[in-house]
Each structure stands twice: as C-alpha cells, then as structure tokens.
Amino acid sequence: MRRRPSPNRITRFNVAAFAFLLGIFWLAQSWTCADPTHNHGKDEETSKVPLEVHIMSKCPDARDCLEQLVVPTMANVSDKVDFKLSFIGTTTDDDDGVKCMHGQTECLGNILELCAASEYPDPKIYLGFTMCLSRQYERIPKKDLIEDCALEHGIDFDTLNHCMSRDDGAYGMDMLRKSVQRSAKLGVSTSCTIRLNGKTRCVVDGGEFRDCDDGSEPKDLIRDIKDLYDEARGWSD
C-alpha cells in the first residue's frame, strides 16, 4: 500500500498543480524586461570570488541575512562575485520529493526562486526577486505577492510559470532536489549560511549573526571579496 504523502513534503505533482493555477491567474498578463549581458574577459571571469548563500524561502533569518548583509554587499561588488543561491531541506524517496521545514508552501517558494535564477541568471534580477518575496515570506506563494515582486524586478509571469510547470513539475522539482542535496553535501543545515570562497563566512540563526569572525557588516564582506578578487588577479601586495 502506498504511503500517504507527508503534509510538509512537496512532489512534482504538487508543483504541476500549483503552476497550473498560476497559469490561470497570469494568463492575461505579461511584462517583459531584457536580461542585460556583460562581456567579460576570461581572466576576469576566472577571478570572480565564489559567494554562495543557503536559505529557506519562508525563514525570517533568510530575510535578515539577505536584507542586512547579502544584498548590500552584492550592490557594491556583484561584478567580482560568482553568486549562487542554494536551498535547505530534506530529500525523500517517495516520488523524488523534498521535505521543507516550513511546509509545502516553502518548497514552492524555493522552486519559484530557483526558476527565477534559472530563467534570469543575472543576480541583480533573481536576487532582487528573492529579497522581495522574503520581505513578506509568510505570504509565499500568494499570487499578488509574486505578481508584485516579478513586476518590480522585470520577471515575466509566463516565463516563470513555464519553468514551474515544465515536464509536469519535474523540472522545478529536480532543481530543488539538486539544490537541497548540494547544501547537505556541503554540511549546511542552517538558514541562512553564507559561504565565501568555499568556506563558511557567516551564519544568521535565531536572529543572531554568528561565526562571522571577520565581521558581519556589509563593509566587512565587501572587503574580503575585494581582497580575494585582487589576489586571484595577482594584484595583492
């Protein structure tokens, strides 16, 4: 007998159903924005500093982490950073699902944010969209919240909906599963965890910044990124 799905577990079928509803809501609306591209030389690309942020979409610590540290930092040094947003959860064997701490709506929020990153790889777009959702994380994935944040950051509803519904939800589900597996493989289980150049740089947990030995202000993280960038380009003293 097949086991009844956990209420906190999301599967590709849940994603497909949610995307179908989004399609109904968004069918008559379309906003587009060009995705700017930047041509960098090979040396500049390889010198970029890896900055990875591990979050849960409906976590207040993720909101504080992004708002107080990550977004202000990226506003100053995005051209020097190879940025990645990863998610925290638990994979399950049933239907290749994922279990999220704050329930199915968090899993759907995670997939929405992964779809934004997949379809709009410029961090200025998808990080801004994620920050917008995080400010009202309790309401994820309410239609009007997604509409407002997508419009504000130049994300097309149809594009986002297509990502959510692609392959009956399997595409988004696979992205979330791989992201969760990556966080687990790196030993990250706390939202929010910031990793700089492959090492834990700072953690926000229970409203407190910890393990931020070199400082928890944007100026501190900006300094570290610039130092690592200059060192990679051979500009260090």
UniProtKB/TrEMBL annotation:
Main location: secreted
Residues making up the signal peptide according to the UniProt record: 1-30
A molecular function (GO) term: oxidoreductase activity, acting on a sulfur group of donors, disulfide as acceptor
InterPro entries in UniProt: Interferon-induced_GILT (IPR004911)
Keywords from the UniProt entry: Glycoprotein, Secreted, Signal
Any one GO CC term of the record: extracellular region
Protein localization: Secreted
Domain of life (superkingdom): Eukaryota
A Pfam family that the UniProt record links to this protein: GILT
PANTHER family in UniProt: GAMMA-INTERFERON INDUCIBLE LYSOSOMAL THIOL REDUCTASE GILT, GAMMA-INTERFERON-INDUCIBLE LYSOSOMAL THIOL REDUCTASE
Stated family: Belongs to the GILT family.
Protein name: GILT-domain-containing protein
Organism: Aaosphaeria arxii CBS 175.79
